[in-house]
Amino acid sequence: MRTGFKLLIISTISLFLFLISSSLIHSQSFWEGYHSPEQANNVLTETAQNHPDITRVHTLAQSPGGRELLVLEIGPEVNSEEKSLPAILVVANMEGVIPITTEASLKLVDLVIEENAADNKTWYILPNGNPDAAVRFFQSPLRKDVRNEFPVNDDMDDQVGEDGPEDINGDGFVTTMRYKHPQGEWIPVDGEPRLMRRADRAKGERGIYKIHSEGIDNDGDGQINEDPTGGINVNRNFPHLFREFTATGGAWPGSTPEARGIFEFVFSRPEIAMTFSLGETNFALQPPRGGRQGSADFQNIQIPESFADQIGADPNATYTMDEVIRMVEPLAPPGFEITESVVASFLGLGAVVNPMQEDLVFYNELADRYKEYLEEHGFSTDRLSPAAAKDGSFELWSYYHLGIPTFSMDFWTLPEFREETEDEDSGLTPEKIGEMSDEEFVDLGEETIGQFLEEVGAPAQFSAAQVIGMVQGGMLTTSRIAEMLAQMPGGSPASPDGASAEDKALIAWVDNELNGEGFIEWSEFDHPDLGTVEIGGPIPFVKNTPPYVMVDSLLSVQVPWIVTLSEKMARLNIMSTDTEYLGGGIHRVTAWIENENYLPFPTAMGVRNQNPKPAQIFLQANGLDFIEGRERTLIESLGGMEAKKFTWLVRSPETRLLQLRLETTHAWSDRSQIELGGSR
Amino acid sequence: MKFIYTLILALLLAAAGTISLNAQKSSINVPLPFDRYYDLEDLYKAIEVLNEAFPELTTAEVITQSEEGRDVWAFTINNPETGDHLAKPGVYVDGNIHGNEIQATEVVLYLMNYLLTNYGEVEKITELVDRNAFYFVPSVNVDGRYHFFNNANTPSTNRGLRVPGDGIRDAVSDRSISNDLNNDGSITQMRKRDPFGQWNTHPEDPRLMVRAEPGEFGEWTLLGQERYDITEDTQISEDAERYVDPNRDWGSNWAPPYVQRGAGDYPFMGNVSKAIAEYMVGRPNIIMVFAFHNTGGMFLRGPGTKARGPLNPSDVAVYDILGENAEKIVPGYDYLISWKDLYSTYGDFTEFTYNTIGAFSFVGELFMARQETYAAYEDLMSADHESLGFGTTTEQDLQRLKFNDNVAHGTLFKEWEPFDHPIYGEIEIGGWAKMSTRISHPFMLKDMAHRNAAAVLFAAAQTPKVEMEITRNERIDDNLNRVRVRLVNHNAIPTMTNHAVQNQLYPQDMLTAEGNNIRVVAGGRVTDRYRDRVNYKEHRPELQFLRVPGTSVVYYDFLVEGNGELTINYNSRKAGQRTANTTIN
Fold first, then answer.
1. How far apart are CA B576 and CA A427, in angstroms?
2. Which ipTM was obtained for this model?
3. Which residues of B touch A315 (CB under 8 A)?
4. CATH number of the domain enclosing B347
């Protein structure tokens, strides 16, 4: 009658949870002040009421849990659907578990209005991209989960969402259970038994504990918490490198309404010239990562055998895109244009998966500016690194598919823990090395590298000189070093007590800043499925969410950088015009068009994917006759701080005054008049 | 009888040569006529008359509106007396996702008509209808179909969705700006006499153009499709369309336009692809999919790109049975792998239906130019069947012109005729008509439709047919019985694709044992039925998860205690439900 007994336990626990959840707001008062999704939406609607001339609220989507995703539009054109000014889209908390990003978006709303940052552009600000997940931070018991409420049968059984985690010891938090098990892999950290680490079998250690999230086996299938309510992580449901068949990615890109709503919102607004994603990654500090295999390389295309025959190519040779186009062109039916995209899709060359070199130039330069800015403001950057962007995320989609400058920003990670050792620490971590270029690594010098190799316990045969030699010789790269170190036994970086850098940072943070409040001491509990367990560990969100008192000082330095970056977006102007009379009634008209700002129009990725709309120049007058050139000319790209010359040969029998218009969807517009000189 | 009468009549009419593409159309009644192509209004009418003639067996519903507001219809054939449609293996068939590939619709209509008019008359058909649920979307791209019939076209235009262009980049593109200069309903080719030309007429047939020998000038310049040259036009064509291919719009291995020409801005941008995806998600019983296109004479399966890697081998074995038989049912058609034998595609429909819906999926490419013959039987048999995929050889074209003259009586080719072009001056306009090249003369329609419908029915007959039986119930201890359940799948298609199991598209089939006063002590899959070896499931033994492969038998044992009636339920999304009872005492 074990089943009956379990049912009794489950209902008792549910009843208990029900009773406490109605009265208990989790005890962590240091987080009071954060805005729930509902409160954030209220801030937007109130702002819209207070500033009706420059703000407007849009409903972007409704989450599967029935929550509205509101976007606040700020700008001088709120009352017209067609925009003449460029716009910036800012999305926040797409994973739904980073409450500070919602605060940052609300801070940005204030800043844009106060500082008049929307006087010549439009801002679209979405404080919660995943409100179903975000609301959990404001519920009790406190639980962290990126899933929205889209029903997903995680364990592929006869019920959906029936076995999620619970706060079984009723302390208000879903934390961690550890329990002794013959197959346990974990042991407490020496000198800090609150922390756990994996036993190192190579050193003869044997694991003691298994660890698991807090909860019970609700559906009696022998697994605990394997099918929580929901759902999809909105920030894995975008089409760039979307991963099929994952637990939280969704069945297809846009299968959850929040992501789909963003697609439709963005593609119906060609004025969007730039995006920001406020989350756990930071392209403002660390450019999007490269080094991925499988990028379509248009300089070295190999033609599959089946096609090589038809187009007269050598299947063993490689060709450039231009060469392939020239080979295919004679075979195309008349009128059919052979473009890069035709060839790429015919040969199945695939998507671009690494950032374009030209774009990394501005990303790196702006990251340097940002570091200087933070330094000037006395803002410590000694913190754990922002996360790397994930496949299927908004920020990668925005960079690769929209082809416009895309910045992500994170606002807080745990301060880096520094060992108090006599020797000065090398200051290096495998992560840091992975982010360095090979040259930067070599420039560190033999001494620093040697010290680091010792710190991580690298085998003796790897001397600093050898490693430097291998990097210089191209046999080893910084990313490979980081990878190798990550695979070394004992985790990285190795340290006397074996705890990970994150755990050490966490425990220092909890003890020094939170008076221990962010960590639940392990205590015994009689678990219905597992017998005696200990429940404890860091409370949810303690690793990524600072006390509310810190929020203002964190955001008042970092959020203004969004406005600073926004001022760098491409702006096209008519720089100068000129005419020359050639005789016979023919004039040469010249116009210089410039991009007066720093960021390119569009990004190199945008040139490649042809998504952003090109600019158009119109040269017009009654009866104007074009000898060379046309009334309408497209400008596909214009680099930051660059100018391009455009010329026409015209006859203008009716008027000496020509109208020159520069029109863009997302880089402002300009116009000018040109007076023809000389004889008609 | 009626059916045969129509057939004979059609043959007589064809022989008399009175059917031409412009001939008086027969009226649309049941049984549906297949002596003609159905324009969109005809299609709506056909759906209506079939639905009215067979109200018990059919459901017709509008699943969405197209970009231009036209209705997209879905049609279900299910016999409610043999069960709810969701409780039977679902067979989904559509066509005409490319607006110009019109005869795909007639194949779907033919199949609908054939199933309904033969139900109760032909045993095999009756069994197919009683055992399966059939879902049809006869024309996916209704805007394309409408514009293909109602406007001048080449055989290949009006393929995509009617998505407006951006007025910027699309506006300079002249790919969709063609004009029927001579108002003959077809957009054909323009040629101009030119002493420095690259082309000559073929010595055997001056209608055919061949390239001049290297080192020589020819007598003609080809100017491409009939049109005014938009680039000389100061009017910017505001209504230029963007090319969005509805068969690159599906959310499996989708790629943006710079990777996959014809993709939209994001997956399921088109109204109809989004609606069909939702339609299929709401019909989890669909296990077999056919999507008809033209051209080439092929049955294609995935994957669409090499990077996807080969399909699951046990699924390939099933595909092979279906594909190899389809090749025989439709002579000349080849069973091929999309990326390898044709070209790479991202985000196509059958990629989605196999990968995300979990259905065995074929694209049927209708029409083979080499069937337009003008050759004696012996010569045909000995001919070298060289083909160029979608293209034709000069030899084939010479034969096709004679076929046009003597079999189709001039309806497939527009003779070259002089025209005074505003830009090019004296030119000639002529070439293959709209209703040619990828579309056969209607006299060939019915044979083609029947054979392709038969290929679908072969697959439909192989959808999983599971029988469940309790083969043992014996007391093995004081208060313990062993109950053995046998599940037999008589057909080639498994109850789930292996891909669906491995990638956890949805829960596996479930087998449950329950009864009042009965407790299931243990249960599991029998690994050796002679020695009673069983893999007992550790938790919830009363609930087993399984898949029954094609033409296979699986056994499950339950050890139960108590007294009373034990009910065994088998519940499969795609193979239906089965129940069996036994008494425990």
1. 64
2. 0.92
3. none
4. 3.40.630.10
